[in-house]
Design goal:
8 helices; alpha/beta; disordered N terminus; 2 domains; elongated; four-stranded parallel β-sheet; 261 residues
């Protein structure tokens, strides 16, 4: 079985794909709304002359809501600023829009992981728009178990400090970075353990490293907690000796973690 290519450093998930599919889906909804008005209006006018106008007004409000929501989402992404409703937009994207866009993208034959990458990038941009900065002890770095070397005898799930810092995988550098900054760090073997870790730490901000599928589900299940997702690298294929770009981790921490007083 051929391994799926990993995302290399510098490859940016395409937010435009998600926005493009969302805009296309919105256009389809508008077209359907127009047809729902135009077809019955021929018959409605025979019931009462004002009924087609009422129907048109309702559908126009629906169209305005769709176009306004998409426009505000695009402006938030382009400006990188919190345009008053970015958290509500994030809720709308995570809870309702994403499942619909995924289904719509699959109908068009778009790769699911490509859609997930776009969703992750979109979520990250909405979180960044909040300009959130939290104390180190209120943050959490959450890692997948596959980032540890596969044949390592020391299993660090539950306690990253068990790492002996041999340097053969990225755990040592990540653990040292977390220790220097005073940020809790944990490794999860799956969604159940990840949820347990989050409940125990009660963070105000999460930096999560994982593959497209796990990041997408983690972001959705963790809502309303702000989560910045970083895709892992998979030089040996999925779920096996994965890596992470340390500079990307540090950039996110610099942006969202308050410096020590």
């Amino acid at each position: 079985m051929t391994a799926k290519p990993f995302v290399r450093h510098g490859d940016q998930p395409r937010k435009r794909l998600f926005i493009g599919l969302l805009t296309l889906a919105g256009s389809v909804v508008l077209l359907v709304a127009f047809l729902l008005w135009w077809v019955p209006s021929v018959g409605l006018v025979h019931i009462h002359p004002i009924l087609p106008l009422i129907s048109a007004g309702i559908l126009a409000l629906l169209a305005l809501f769709i176009v306004g929501g998409i426009g505000l989402l695009v402006l938030t992404l382009l400006t990188g600023r919190d345009l008053f409703f970015s958290e509500r937009l994030r809720k709308l994207v995570i809870r309702y829009i994403f499942p619909g866009v995924i289904a719509f993208g699959r109908l068009l034959g778009v790769d699911r992981d490509t859609l997930r990458q776009s969703f992750i990038a979109l979520n990250n941009q909405l979180v960044r728009a909040r300009k959130l900065r939290v104390p180190a002890h209120k943050a959490l770095i959450l890692l997948p178990h596959c980032i540890q070397l596969f044949d390592c005898d020391l299993k660090i799930t539950g306690d990253v400090n068990r790492c002996v810092r041999c340097g053969r995988c990225d755990i040592a550098d990540l653990a040292d970075l977390a220790w220097r900054r005073g940020i809790p760090i944990a490794v999860a073997t799956g969604g159940t353990l990840a949820r347990k870790i989050i409940v125990e730490h009660r963070p105000q901000f999460i930096l999560a490293v994982a593959c497209e599928r796990d990041l997408t589900s983690g972001i959705r299940e963790s809502y309303p907690l702000p989560v910045i997702g970083l895709l892992n690298q998979r030089p040996d294929g999925p779920c096996f000796n994965t890596r992470v770009v340390l500079d990307e981790v540090e950039r996110v921490l610099d942006e969202h973690i308050l410096p020590d007083p």
